[in-house]
Amino acid sequence: MKLKKSWVLILMLGIMSAVLVACGGGDSTKEDASKSGKKTVNLMESAEIPSMDSKKGTDGVSFTAQNTVFEGLYYLDKEDQVQPGVAKEDPQINDDQTVYTIKLRDDAKWSNGTPVTANDFVYSWRKIVDPKTAAEYAVIFSGVVKNATKITAGEMKPEELGVKAIDDQTLEVTLEQPVPYFHSLLTFPTFYPQNEEYVEKQGADYAKDSDHMIYNGAFTMKGWTNTSKSWSYEKNSKYWNKGDIKLDKINLQVIKDPGSAVNLYTTGKLDRATLSGDYAKQKQSDADFTSSLDAFVYFLKFNQKLDGKATIFANENVRKAIATVINKETMVDTVLANGSEPINGLVPSKFTFNPVTKEDFRKENGDLITYDKAKAQEYWKKAKQELGQDKITIEFLGDDQEFSKKMAEYIQSELETNLDGLKINIKTVPYKSRLKLDETQQYELQLSRWGPDYQDPSTFLGVFETTSSYNRSSYSNPEYDKLLKEAATTLATKPEERWNVLLQAEKILIEQDTAIAPLYQNGVAALQNPKMTGFVTHLFGAPYSYQWIEIK
C-alpha cells in the first residue's frame, strides 16, 4: 500500500510538471492566486541589493528596491512625468526660483502607523550631507541645496542646510541658485525621507535587513538581508494610495544566468525573465518577447591614477586607441542582442531635448568618437612610442553578472586581436565587490555604466567634473569644469545658452580628451507573462517601478 501511494504521488508530480512546462511563463501565478486569494507575481533581479538605506544607495539594483518600498515628495509616473507623492501638490516657487515651499499630504504614513512629516525629510537630507555619514550621493545636493557644498566639505554644520520644516506638513527648501531640473530631482531615492525616532533607535542596525526598516511606499519588504538572493514585497496597508495597488505580493529572486531565467520563466516560476545574447536572439519571435531602450549608458572607464601614481591611461593615445578599436555594432548584435544601441557620446538618445528646437541632445551633438580600427592602430603605435613599451598588460575589472562576463571576454578579444602587444587580464569579482573597488579607485580598466538621476544632460556630464565623488578615474580638465559650472550657475535661467555649453562640454570629454570610451545605450529584452501589465521602465531615477503591475 505504501509503495502504491509513492508511485501515485510521483505520477501526479510528473503530470503537474508537464502542465507547468506546457503552459509557459506565469501560470503558476494564477494558481497561487486562486489558492491563496492573493495576487502575486514573480520577478527577477540581476544582483543582490547592495543597500536599502536611502542615504547609501548608489546603484540601479538598490534604487529599484528602495523605489518599491519608499516614496519621496514626488514620484515618476508611467510616462516619466513628475507626480505628487508625499507632497500633496506641486511646489510653490518664489520669483527668483530659489525657494520651494512644499505642502505634504496628511494621510502619508510609515508602515508602523507614524505620520510622514516635513522633519523626516529635514532629518534625512541633513544626514546625507553630513561628512560623518560619508554618503556617496551627497554630491547630488552639492551646488543645488543651499550650503550643501560647504557642509560636505566640513566648513558648515548639517543644520545649516537649506531645508527646514515650517510645520509637520510644510517643507521649505532653499537652493544655491535656480536649478531647472530640481522638481524632477526630488523623485530620486537619495531625497527620500527617514523617520528620525525610528532610525536613531535602530542605530547601526538600521536597514541591515527587512526587519530593521519601516516603509512609506506602496509595498513593505520581507525576508531580506544584505546577502539575500531572494526576498518579497507585500502590499503596504498604510500607504496613502493603497487602493490603486493591484498586487498583494511580489516575489524577487537574484538570477545572474540568462539560461536559468529562461528555464524558470518557461516552467511558470517567473513572470518576467531578462534576456541577453543567444537567448535574446532565440526568443525574438516569441509572442511574449518585449524589448525597450532605457537611458543607461555603458562605457569603458580609464583610471588615470592608481595608488597616487599615473597609469597607462594617463596617455591620451592609449585611451583613444581603445575607444576606437571596439566594434560596437557587433557587440550589441551578437553579445547583447537585447535592443541595445551603439553610442558615440555620453548623453543617451531620447532622453533630453533642446529647449528651443526640441532636437535630441544625442542627435544634435552627433558622433563624437566612432569605431575605426585603422585609426585605433595609429593611436596605439604612437602610444607605445611615447611610453617606450612594446608589450603592455592591462587588468580589466569585471563582475559576476553573466552579461558582464561575456562583455569582458568580447572586449578582451577585440583589444588583444587588434592592438599589437596588448595583453588583457580579466579580474572577475562579485558585483558588490566591483562597486567597492570602483569607489576606492582600485582598478585599471573596467566596464562601467551610468543611469540618469534626473532629466538633464548634466546628470551624465557632472560625473566627470574634477571634484565629483563619482569621477573615480582622476580625469581633470579645467575648461570642462568651467563649462559645467557656468551651466549650473550663471546660465541656469538661460536655457538655450546653457544647452549649448553642455553640448560643448561633452565634446571636450569624449571627442577631445576621450576620458571614457562610450560603448552602448542599454536595451532591455525580456520574456513577460502576457497576463501581467504595468511593469514600468524609467528613463531616469530608479530603473523600474512595480506599483502599477496587474495580473489578470
Features:
552 residues, 4-stranded mixed beta sheet, Dipeptide-binding Protein, domain 3, 7-stranded mixed beta sheet, 20% strand, 2 domains, alpha+beta, Dipeptide-binding Protein, domain 1, 18 helices
Would you write up a description of this structure?
The protein folds into two domains: 235 residues, Alpha-Beta Complex (Dipeptide-binding Protein, domain 1), CATH 3.90.76.10; 230 residues, Dipeptide-binding Protein, Domain 3 (Dipeptide-binding Protein, domain 3). It contains 18 helices and 23 strands.
Strand share of the residues? 15-25%
At the fold tier of CATH, the topology name of the largest domain is Dipeptide-binding Protein, domain 1
Using the alpha-carbon principal axes, give the shape. Answer: globular
Give the beta-strand count. 23
Biggest sheet details: 7 strands, mixed
Find the structural class using helix and strand composition.
alpha+beta
CATH class of the largest domain: Alpha Beta
* Global mean pLDDT: 92
Ends apart, CA distance between termini: 42 Å
Domain Solute-binding protein family: 81-469
Pfam families: SBP_bac_5
Protein name: Oligopeptide transport system substrate-binding protein
Subcellular location: Cell envelope
